[in-house]
Amino acid sequence: MSEWDVSADDWSAARASAAADHTVLIVDDDPSIRAMLGFVLDDEGFTVLEAADGDEALQLLETDAPDAMVLDLMMPRVDGHAVLRSRRDRDLAPDTRIVILTAKSDPSDAVWCWELGADEYVNKPVDPEQLVREVHMLLKRTPDEIRARRVEGLAEARRLDSLESAFGTKKKRR
């Protein structure tokens, strides 16, 4: 083994060590999704907090801002869009990195999320290991890289939204 080779055990330990100093808030009204994501993130070494709705998430953002938040959009009472809007308007947890995890596939939702400060936008269903990789990558990015990714994500979402509108595949909202 050369000095550059890393065993699977060493890699797992290094990832867990890197995650150990980070807290991730999972915000989803589905307890099974919270449990599954919580298990995977905890197994990776993250400290995991959970919120069943946007109200709980906003309370946690006010008192104990996590390093990252995995946020569902479709929740009762206070949805993910409202969490993003309130976070921005009240300047809550400005350093918290946000991954949107949603079943919504309309590009206009992605546009809205990027505009409101999301850092990544992922559609359900998602491979839990892929989500863990997204969180790791997001936490490694510098503020400049985060801003550049938002610009890139917003541009891509706007392109997709324009294509759907141009080809008439966009569903009309009532």
Descriptive report:
Helix 4 (80-90) links the parallel strand 3 (68-71) and strand 4 (97-102). By secondary structure, the chain is α/β, with parallel strands linked by helices. Helices cover 53% and strands 14% of the residues. Helix 3 (54-63) packs parallel to helix 4 (80-90) and helix 5 packs antiparallel against helix 7 (143-166). The chain contains seven helices and five strands. The longest helix has 24 residues, at 143-166. The chain has a five-stranded parallel sheet with strand order 2-1-3-4-5, with helices on both faces. The chain has helices at residues 8-19, 31-43, 54-63, 80-90, 107-115, 128-140, 143-166, and strands at 23-27, 47-51, 68-71, 97-102, 120-123.
Give the SSE map:
Blueprint: H1 8-19, E1 23-27, H2 31-43, E2 47-51, H3 54-63, E3 68-71, H4 80-90, E4 97-102, H5 107-115, E5 120-123, H6 128-140, H7 143-166
Parallel strand pairs: 1-2, 1-3, 3-4, 4-5
Helix pairs in contact: 3-4, 5-7
Radius of gyration: 17 Å
The total of helices stands at 7
From N to C, what is the helix and strand string? HEHEHEHEHEHH
Q: pLDDT below 50 for ≥5 consecutive residues: which ranges?
A: 1-6
Shape category? globular
- Determine the mean pLDDT: 86
Strand order of the largest sheet: 2-1-3-4-5
Distance between the termini: 62 Å
